[in-house]
Write a structure and sequence with these properties.
The protein is α+β, with helices and mostly antiparallel strands. The chain has two domains: about 80 residues, Elongation Factor Tu (Ef-tu), domain 3 (Beta Barrel), CATH 2.40.30; about 55 residues, no CATH class. It is built from six helices and six strands, in the order E-E-H-E-E-E-H-E-H-H-H-H. A six-stranded antiparallel β-barrel has the order 1-2-5-4-3-6. The longest helix has 17 residues. The termini are far apart.
Length: about 160
Amino acid sequence: MKIESFIESAPKGYAPFIVCDYDAAKAFIEAHSRRVIMRGPDQEDLHRALQLRKDGYALIMLSKAVLKAWKCEVGDKVTVEIRPDTTKYGMPMPEEFEIVLEQDPEAAEAFEALNDGRKRGLLYYAGGAKSEASRIKRALELAEKLRTGTLHGGV
């Protein structure tokens, strides 16, 4: 599904977003799910959620980093393409974290017991490091916290 929209932002500097047609978004969600893979002007895939709002519009949240990658700013018109996200967790599993969980069944069990949003947050954190060494360090840190039950609000 292609979406042409202006990049908008709520007052007070909240995160930028693009608005989608409510009826089209609702039909997409009913046919697939809220989780989407969005391809923007930089042709990179982003894992996002299609959100229906009570006041009759739908949106996809962005971030300042996405705007920078797209070389866009609030007010610019963009065309994005969305397709269903069929990944298990709604985003990719970092290889380093997957290996650590395979070797630590107790941490893997604790990970699987988390709600979907919490899982995505951990995957984002685990895969967000630039170097492989940092991703391994984060994966080991998360496994330890999952196993010992010391994973709280922040990572």
